[in-house]
């Protein structure tokens, strides 16, 4: 699969899928930049991965760097450790800005997520207030019923005595 040429097709999820492919390309590019900054060859990477127990031929490293092969999660973790980085840190390494639409998509998506969260928060508060009012009504009714039962229970012995002709 050539990630550079294979654009996802036909659903409302296409922008997210395209962004994920661009993110993967960006990650591969970051690993290439890290390799080049250290003066390592693709074979060096292959050897270092093999030392960690992950077999990846030099040609596979090349294909991955060119976007002709997807980057697997286990490989991303292993590559991060090869470069002495925690896996999550690679996401924050600045990349060449040759993928401008990914930032645009993420900015738009972030605004959309924020709006959705605000709507959900408002709906949650409305539901909470409604349920709280109902709970308060039920609690008040319960207290009245308990009070009435207590009053009736305290009156029963007197009523029994009155019925027997005993008065106090």
TrEMBL record:
It holds the Pfam family HTH_3. Residues 31-90 form the HTH cro/C1-type domain. InterPro entries: Cro/C1-type_HTH, Lambda_DNA-bd_dom_sf. This is Helix-turn-helix domain-containing protein. GO terms for molecular function: DNA binding.
């Amino acid at each position: 699969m050539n990630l550079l040429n294979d654009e996802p097709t036909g659903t409302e999820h296409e922008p997210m899928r395209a962004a994920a492919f661009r993110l993967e390309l960006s990650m591969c590019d970051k690993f290439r930049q890290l390799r080049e900054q250290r003066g390592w060859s693709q074979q060096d990477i292959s050897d270092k991965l093999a030392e960690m127990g992950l077999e990846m031929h030099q040609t596979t490293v090349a294909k991955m760097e060119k976007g002709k092969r997807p980057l697997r999660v286990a490989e991303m973790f292993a590559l991060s450790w090869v470069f002495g980085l925690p896996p999550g840190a690679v996401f924050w390494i600045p990349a060449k800005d040759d993928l401008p639409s990914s930032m645009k998509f993420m900015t738009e998506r972030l605004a959309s997520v924020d709006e959705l969260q605000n709507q959900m928060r408002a709906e949650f508060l409305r539901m909470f207030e409604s349920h709280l009012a109902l709970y308060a009504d039920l609690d008040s009714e319960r207290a009245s019923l308990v009070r009435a039962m207590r009053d009736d229970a305290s009156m029963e012995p007197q009523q029994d005595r009155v019925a027997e002709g005993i008065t106090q």
